[in-house]
Fold these 2 entries.
Entry 1:
Amino acid sequence: MEFKANWIRPAKDLGDVCPVFKKEWKIKKPLKKVELYLTALGVYEAEVNGKRVSGYVLAPGWTAYEMRLQVQRYDVTELVREENILTVIVGRGWMRSPMPGFVEAEYKKKRMEQPCGLWGELHLTYADGSKEVLASDETWEYGESAVRFSEIYDGEHYDATFDTTLWSHALRLDWQTDILMMQEGEEIREIERIGAKSVFETPAGERIVDFGQEITGYVEFCVDAKAGERIRILHGEVLDKNGNFYRDNYRDAKAEIQYICKEGGQTYHPKLTFFGFRYLKLEEFPKKARPEQFKAVVVCSNIKKTGHLSCSDPDVNQLFSNIFWGQKGNFLDIPTDCPQRDERLGWTGDAQVFVKTATYNYDVEKFFTKWLHDMAAHQRKDGGIGQVIPDLLDAGNPSAAWGDAAVICPWQIYQTYGKKQILEDQFDCMKKWVDYITGATTVPYLWAGGEHFGDWLGLDAPSGSYKGSSREEFIATAFYAYSTQLLVKAAKVLGKDAGEYEQLYQNIVETFRKTYPEYLTQTEHILAVHFRLAKDLQKTADDLAEMIKRDGSQIKTGFVGTPYILHVLSEYGHSDLAYTLFLRKEYPSWLFSVKQGATTIWEHWDGIMENGDFWSADMNSFNHYAYGSVADWVYEKAAGIRPLEEYPGFERVLIKPMADKRLNWLEASIDTRNGKIASKWICTPDGIRYEIETAVPAEVEIGDMKMEVAPGTYTFWG
Ligand code: BGC
């Protein structure tokens, strides 16, 4: 697509107020089609003749803006009349936000000082076949909008009494246009509206709205008010142990809505920001508030649900629900760590940990493709991958298990969806990451040195530390080996010569074995088995099982060990123990947070402790999907839907369920690119009944029984 338009900006600085840009035009002859191409420095909402041009919210999304900025195309033919007005409000969005909360003031200032800009083209195709392009230039106007303030973390202020009456000509903005590209990711949309469950008063006398579910998005409220009356709303995820409103864990994110009412009935929701919340505190609100006045609008990338999990235990079903909600809440254009506090960043480690589950739960091929392209764009010259993508923490050192997202994520996308293109696109980035480690280590064939997050939040962390006790260089080397191995596999898929990396892989494994003759923690055992580094895999898995039992049949793992722990146990004959950990309801466990009332996955196993205290105020998110990665064990091991590496995209599968009588039944299904694959087991007085549905040829293994089946539905007894 050849674009012609110039960037434009307001002629003067409007401070906190979001500008609205305007283009008026008249139609002189019969039209066939009108297309609008639009993007902005910030986020925008566009209307033609007072009607929104699309359901896309927070456009143009979040990319590596200096290199890649998405342009949206809207067909607005239906909205066009003889005399037309296009208006576009532009907010700070991600680009001009001072995010994140914990960086230097100087850096924040620099981000905030970037100019507000709009870029647009109206393409008119007339009935007679002729064409005309109205491109943004100085004929477009701007004024102050009713959005008086808008920012990703701090929220939005809106004055419904404000009318834009003063319009001036916009100026040209000198900004790159070679960064423009057509929309590549999924659109961000309002996907659901949830009514408030209750409005109540806390012991501290606060007025609270409860939606009964933590979501990411914004509230839509309707109110009957006098002009000038004010509404102030704060957001919170949980109540404290006394039942009062709590928001210390949002840290510096104000997450506040201010709204000046116009006269009469009105409905409003923020346009250019979002929040992670379950509760609202009505600091100011006219009259008595009723639940019917509030809806939580769920905003998420438009990903299609493909996975289904359920079983006979209501707590486990709540866990499943929390996992899906955790994904919806953190798949808002990029995979974020959390949606509420002054962070909301594309932490690479979190995405790596969760990517397999993510691909089974939803179709995220397009979503990850865009993010991985941004990763490649932001890869540092030396091949290092930042801690977050888009990489706005330039100074952050690449960490093992975080940077490895560069290899693990594209490989997983290829495995689940079966298209080589993602490997093609990312191969260079994958290779440069492995080369980065080779160049960065102080000891060949290990990853020695560097700064790492270790087994982040591992429960075996020494007091006062966020990092579990597993040795950082052990983890780093294990991931070095794993990434190198995946790189070799990717090279083979693409028909590239991988000899050099095969040798490198052998050398890493050998050196790893010599350097680490024994494993000290749960996570060290897990990585040694899962990445097939231990010489004796079975013995290492048995040792892990013993260690877990000695630890009181409890997980001690953090971000790095948790995603694989149950896989390793089930794979090596300890399925029983895997279920013990999975079904455990006391702390620490997946179900502890469920027992504590969680509706999404928590950052900490004990975000709210047994006694009702919080883990901390400074780092305690109640919507952090990482530990939700347990779902891929449920799909693959509990229900037994296992992809076969040589048949990417589920062209052929192994179905090997592992039932456990502590549940009466369990079922899972995935709508793969090759059709639906479903597996259910039911414990009956006559034995265990297995119901299998497969759209592809499958190898079925139930106990000692092994057979090959054609696509179809089957029942087996075991
Ligand atoms: C984020 C994590 C992230 C970590 C890295 C945190 O603040 O929320 O999920 O991976 O930092 O250390």
Entry 2:
Amino acid sequence: MASTLPQLPVFEAIARHDPNSTVVIHSNSGRTFRYGELLGDVCKTRNRIYEKAGKTDLEGERIAFLIENSYDYVVTLLAVLAARSIAVPLSPAFPALELQYILNHSEASMLLSSAKFAPQAKKVLSTQLNERPDYLQLSKFQGGASHEPVTLEGADPGEAGMMLYTSGTTNRPKGVLLPQSVMTAQAHSLIHAWEYAPKDHLLHVLPLHHIHGTINALFTPLFSGSTIEFQFPFNADAVWRRLAAPFLTPDQVPDPSPPKKPITFFTVVPTVYSRLLATHKLLPPDLQAATRLAISPRNLRLSISGSAALPTPIKRSWTDLSSGNILLERFGMTEVGMALSCGLSPADRVDGSVGWPLPGVEARLVDIETDAIIQPGQEIDPTTGRERAGEIQLRGPTIFREYWRNPEATAKEFAPATDGGKAWFKTGDVAVRRPVAGAGESDIPSQRDWTRGDMYFILGRRSADIIKSGGEKVSALEIEREMLALPQVAEVAVLAVPSGKWGQKVGAVVILDKENVPEGRWSALEMRRALKTRLVNYKIPQVLRVVDHIPRNAMGKINKKLLVKEIFQDEFSGDEI
Ligand code: MLC
Ligand code: AMP
């Protein structure tokens, strides 16, 4: 079959990179793959997809896949784009019922899996599906393939794109459609802002069904010719050992081959930094010394935190441990990719701030009380003298197209523009803008056109029904829905409980069903067991309180912000680092 690929910007970029440079390393096995073999392998996999489908026109069809964090994942994602289809990466950690929902909702025409996740694939395929997708098990690439020539022709990307599922203010996750033009715009914006380069070597420890792991830590480095080293699932001890490896003397290295390169780029969620800080002191002294060297600014060029608020104690502890590596915080969302970011200059990594709108992103604040746009210079309310808090609204080429098959939700989350331009996406996050002395003056050429003016500081979210736990977004309504389906539960409120380790923990306040639980006792363990087949582990409440009454207002609504303070008082700040 044809060895041609459509002329998508990502393929053009890959074709330009040094073919002998490394694209992917599997950290544990040391297996290495080169840029020169990537497009040939993408072509082969795209052709296998065509063969399985029995046709070569799959434009806009949804192709879901269950593949481990590896070169095979990279090839599969690109192969689906090459078929001008929409890639739907699935989390292998999800129970079959959650996967079934995504396959049904996305109307996937094909499910791909690796051999490793064939059992998960078969399990979901054995559930009641609206439409049974074709199933194809892909074989593993071994690396070292000859560099097959691939022709790029036909610039029309068609409907190629990616769809990520995200929980929100509705009770079932929504499909966020990111056309490849949006993915490309996001990658360009980040390369401009953070200067990804071929010499960058990323350590990748994040799941690959979210924007953070896919766009920031995979798609963008592919554009810039960087090396991605997969080490998944995240394990703090393994990360420390990997970071240390190039800085140990020969007698300290248990297995010196193959030699490990220094990690220059690390992008993770605050919980990961918290775990690393907590475990560092448990390392043997030689590893402690080598890891401190590894994360010093001289070696680790950039360590980024995002997906949830970065607590200042974590930021400070990382700076101390690394002799001056200041975490760069940025703000993003599945629907918009990365939107705001601090700058490369150390002075532009301001505590508590998420920085400025990234290149190509237009941002505004809309007063949460008056709905008026807070124009630059109007950040202080002249009558009260207080800062005006506003919802962050965004537009530009990096914003998603739509919620899949959900025009109502799409319309609801966009505010029409008054200047004839495109509508603004309403993030639901609330922030203030403040001038910061000494920041926003960087002379670094890549920073001059966007790290200027007042900086954004996030205050929180508009909705108490969205919980961020360890960087995972969880919908309180989705959990309530599943809990109400259990015979033990008569009433339930799911709340965000503040936590040092997780940012927020999922908490449940339950009134038991007296008929089904006559003894009136239900433990957290029993709850977890009951929910295990219905929800992925991070959505299952970590803390449970059984009560006789849940206070509601005259409209029957629960004030969750008050309730969490009343009920979970003792859980507050119990597990800070
Ligand atoms: C795991 N657990 C969690 C959890 N992750 N509980 C709450 N919240 C989480 N996020 C549970 C496990 O089920 C387990 O419970 C217990 O905690 C310990 O598990 P673990 O194995 O030690 O945890 P681990 O697997 O190491 O996961 C921690 C983590 C992971 C922080 C590495 O959660 C993670 O990768 N988070 C990042 C998610 C992410 O990529 N977010 C980006 C979204 S995009 P039990 O009972 O089984 O013992 C986005 C936009 C943007 O937000 O701006 O980037
Ligand atoms: P998700 O829907 O999983 O993409 O999560 C997006 C949400 O994560 C945003 O709407 C924010 O609430 C939150 N978020 C991302 N980055 C940050 C940050 N740096 N500080 C605070 N919240 C953040």
